[in-house]
Design brief:
199 residues, mainly alpha, 11 helices
Protein backbone atom coordinates (compact mmCIF):
# COMPACT_ATOMS: atom_id res chain seq x y z
CA UNK A 1 0.00 0.00 0.00
CA UNK A 2 2.72 2.48 0.98
CA UNK A 3 4.68 2.00 -2.24
CA UNK A 4 1.59 2.74 -4.35
CA UNK A 5 0.94 5.95 -2.44
CA UNK A 6 4.56 6.97 -2.80
CA UNK A 7 4.32 6.84 -6.61
CA UNK A 8 1.51 9.38 -6.52
CA UNK A 9 3.33 11.63 -4.08
CA UNK A 10 6.77 13.03 -4.81
CA UNK A 11 7.31 14.54 -1.35
CA UNK A 12 10.95 14.13 -0.27
CA UNK A 13 9.81 14.27 3.37
CA UNK A 14 7.43 11.36 2.85
CA UNK A 15 10.09 9.48 0.92
CA UNK A 16 12.66 9.92 3.71
CA UNK A 17 10.28 8.83 6.48
CA UNK A 18 9.03 5.94 4.34
CA UNK A 19 12.59 4.77 3.73
CA UNK A 20 13.31 4.80 7.49
CA UNK A 21 10.01 3.06 8.20
CA UNK A 22 10.71 0.31 5.67
CA UNK A 23 14.20 -0.18 7.12
CA UNK A 24 12.73 -0.67 10.60
CA UNK A 25 8.95 -1.19 10.70
CA UNK A 26 9.13 -1.45 14.50
CA UNK A 27 10.44 2.10 14.93
CA UNK A 28 8.36 5.06 16.03
CA UNK A 29 8.98 6.87 12.75
CA UNK A 30 5.46 5.84 11.79
CA UNK A 31 4.12 8.91 13.64
CA UNK A 32 5.98 11.55 11.60
CA UNK A 33 5.37 9.47 8.46
CA UNK A 34 1.61 9.51 9.15
CA UNK A 35 1.78 13.25 9.79
CA UNK A 36 3.63 13.80 6.49
CA UNK A 37 0.96 11.83 4.63
CA UNK A 38 -1.77 13.84 6.37
CA UNK A 39 -0.14 17.14 5.41
CA UNK A 40 0.08 15.90 1.83
CA UNK A 41 -3.70 15.45 1.86
CA UNK A 42 -3.59 11.69 2.25
CA UNK A 43 -5.52 11.37 5.51
CA UNK A 44 -6.78 7.82 4.91
CA UNK A 45 -3.24 6.60 4.36
CA UNK A 46 -2.08 8.54 7.41
CA UNK A 47 -4.68 6.81 9.56
CA UNK A 48 -3.69 3.42 8.17
CA UNK A 49 0.01 4.04 8.88
CA UNK A 50 -0.71 5.30 12.39
CA UNK A 51 -2.89 2.29 13.21
CA UNK A 52 -0.24 -0.06 11.86
CA UNK A 53 2.43 1.56 14.03
CA UNK A 54 0.20 1.59 17.10
CA UNK A 55 -0.15 -2.17 16.91
CA UNK A 56 3.54 -2.32 17.86
CA UNK A 57 3.61 0.80 20.10
CA UNK A 58 0.10 1.03 21.61
CA UNK A 59 1.14 3.43 24.38
CA UNK A 60 3.03 5.87 22.16
CA UNK A 61 1.32 9.24 22.67
CA UNK A 62 2.84 10.77 19.52
CA UNK A 63 1.38 7.93 17.47
CA UNK A 64 -2.06 8.35 19.08
CA UNK A 65 -2.01 12.07 18.33
CA UNK A 66 -0.94 11.40 14.72
CA UNK A 67 -3.86 8.98 14.39
CA UNK A 68 -6.26 11.51 15.92
CA UNK A 69 -5.10 14.21 13.49
CA UNK A 70 -5.79 11.93 10.54
CA UNK A 71 -9.19 11.01 11.95
CA UNK A 72 -9.97 14.70 12.45
CA UNK A 73 -9.14 15.42 8.82
CA UNK A 74 -11.54 12.62 7.86
CA UNK A 75 -14.19 14.25 10.08
CA UNK A 76 -14.41 11.18 12.30
CA UNK A 77 -14.80 13.32 15.41
CA UNK A 78 -16.22 10.56 17.64
CA UNK A 79 -13.13 8.46 16.92
CA UNK A 80 -10.88 11.44 17.70
CA UNK A 81 -12.56 11.80 21.11
CA UNK A 82 -12.14 8.09 21.83
CA UNK A 83 -8.42 8.30 20.97
CA UNK A 84 -7.67 11.50 22.84
CA UNK A 85 -9.73 11.24 26.02
CA UNK A 86 -7.28 8.89 27.77
CA UNK A 87 -4.33 10.92 26.50
CA UNK A 88 -5.52 14.25 27.90
CA UNK A 89 -6.39 12.49 31.15
CA UNK A 90 -2.86 11.05 31.48
CA UNK A 91 -0.92 13.87 29.77
CA UNK A 92 -3.04 17.01 30.23
CA UNK A 93 -0.27 19.33 29.02
CA UNK A 94 -0.30 17.80 25.53
CA UNK A 95 -1.58 20.94 23.81
CA UNK A 96 -2.13 19.35 20.41
CA UNK A 97 -4.29 16.63 21.95
CA UNK A 98 -6.24 19.14 24.07
CA UNK A 99 -6.94 21.35 21.06
CA UNK A 100 -7.99 18.42 18.83
CA UNK A 101 -10.26 17.12 21.58
CA UNK A 102 -11.83 20.55 22.10
CA UNK A 103 -12.40 21.09 18.38
CA UNK A 104 -13.83 17.58 17.93
CA UNK A 105 -16.27 18.10 20.82
CA UNK A 106 -17.25 21.45 19.34
CA UNK A 107 -17.85 19.89 15.92
CA UNK A 108 -20.20 17.36 17.52
CA UNK A 109 -22.09 20.04 19.46
CA UNK A 110 -20.73 18.86 22.80
CA UNK A 111 -20.11 22.38 24.08
CA UNK A 112 -19.62 21.44 27.74
CA UNK A 113 -16.85 18.97 26.93
CA UNK A 114 -15.33 21.43 24.47
CA UNK A 115 -15.33 24.10 27.17
CA UNK A 116 -13.54 21.81 29.61
CA UNK A 117 -10.87 20.97 27.03
CA UNK A 118 -10.43 24.62 26.04
CA UNK A 119 -10.12 25.61 29.71
CA UNK A 120 -7.42 22.99 30.23
CA UNK A 121 -5.68 24.25 27.12
CA UNK A 122 -5.91 27.82 28.44
CA UNK A 123 -4.45 26.68 31.75
CA UNK A 124 -1.31 25.42 29.99
CA UNK A 125 -1.21 28.23 27.39
CA UNK A 126 -2.59 31.31 29.21
CA UNK A 127 -1.35 33.73 26.54
CA UNK A 128 -3.26 32.05 23.71
CA UNK A 129 -5.72 34.75 22.67
CA UNK A 130 -7.77 32.48 20.41
CA UNK A 131 -8.30 29.90 23.14
CA UNK A 132 -9.19 32.61 25.64
CA UNK A 133 -11.80 33.94 23.23
CA UNK A 134 -13.24 30.45 22.74
CA UNK A 135 -13.51 29.92 26.51
CA UNK A 136 -15.32 33.25 26.92
CA UNK A 137 -17.66 32.51 24.03
CA UNK A 138 -18.50 28.98 25.22
CA UNK A 139 -19.03 30.17 28.80
CA UNK A 140 -21.36 32.94 27.61
CA UNK A 141 -23.37 30.40 25.58
CA UNK A 142 -23.52 28.03 28.54
CA UNK A 143 -24.77 30.79 30.87
CA UNK A 144 -27.42 31.81 28.35
CA UNK A 145 -28.57 28.21 27.94
CA UNK A 146 -28.64 27.71 31.69
CA UNK A 147 -25.99 25.01 31.59
CA UNK A 148 -23.75 27.09 33.86
CA UNK A 149 -25.08 29.02 36.83
CA UNK A 150 -23.23 31.52 38.99
CA UNK A 151 -23.57 30.72 42.67
CA UNK A 152 -24.83 33.62 44.74
CA UNK A 153 -25.07 31.77 48.06
CA UNK A 154 -22.12 30.94 50.26
CA UNK A 155 -21.12 27.31 49.76
CA UNK A 156 -21.89 25.16 52.78
CA UNK A 157 -18.87 23.47 54.25
CA UNK A 158 -19.00 19.95 55.55
CA UNK A 159 -15.55 20.39 57.03
CA UNK A 160 -14.61 22.40 60.05
CA UNK A 161 -11.91 24.94 59.35
CA UNK A 162 -9.38 25.06 62.17
CA UNK A 163 -6.03 26.69 62.68
CA UNK A 164 -3.06 24.49 61.91
CA UNK A 165 -2.11 24.42 65.59
CA UNK A 166 -5.49 22.85 66.35
CA UNK A 167 -4.76 20.10 63.85
CA UNK A 168 -1.43 19.40 65.53
CA UNK A 169 -2.82 19.43 69.06
CA UNK A 170 -5.47 16.86 68.06
CA UNK A 171 -2.84 14.24 67.15
CA UNK A 172 -0.32 13.38 69.91
CA UNK A 173 2.26 11.98 67.45
CA UNK A 174 2.17 15.16 65.36
CA UNK A 175 2.34 17.27 68.50
CA UNK A 176 5.41 15.38 69.72
CA UNK A 177 7.16 15.72 66.33
CA UNK A 178 6.35 19.43 66.29
CA UNK A 179 7.90 19.98 69.72
CA UNK A 180 10.94 17.82 68.93
CA UNK A 181 11.53 19.94 65.83
CA UNK A 182 11.21 23.12 67.91
CA UNK A 183 13.70 21.82 70.51
CA UNK A 184 16.17 20.79 67.79
CA UNK A 185 15.87 24.25 66.26
CA UNK A 186 16.59 25.90 69.64
CA UNK A 187 19.55 23.57 70.22
CA UNK A 188 21.03 24.55 66.85
CA UNK A 189 20.62 28.24 67.73
CA UNK A 190 22.29 27.74 71.13
CA UNK A 191 25.20 25.89 69.54
CA UNK A 192 25.70 28.83 67.18
CA UNK A 193 25.72 31.24 70.10
CA UNK A 194 28.23 29.07 72.01
CA UNK A 195 30.58 28.95 69.03
CA UNK A 196 30.37 32.73 68.71
CA UNK A 197 31.11 33.24 72.45
CA UNK A 198 34.13 30.90 72.35
CA UNK A 199 35.84 33.00 69.68
Amino acid sequence: MLRNVLKGSQSPVIYEYLRKYQEDPTSRVFAPLAEAYRKAGLAKEAVEIAREGLRIHPGFVGGRVALARGLFDLRLYDDVIVELTPIVRDVPDNLVAQRLLAESCLMLGRAGEALMAYKMLLYFAPDDVEVSRMVQELEARAYEAGDLVLRTDAPSSEFEVRASQGAISGDPALKRRHWVAQVEKLQALLQGVERYRCR
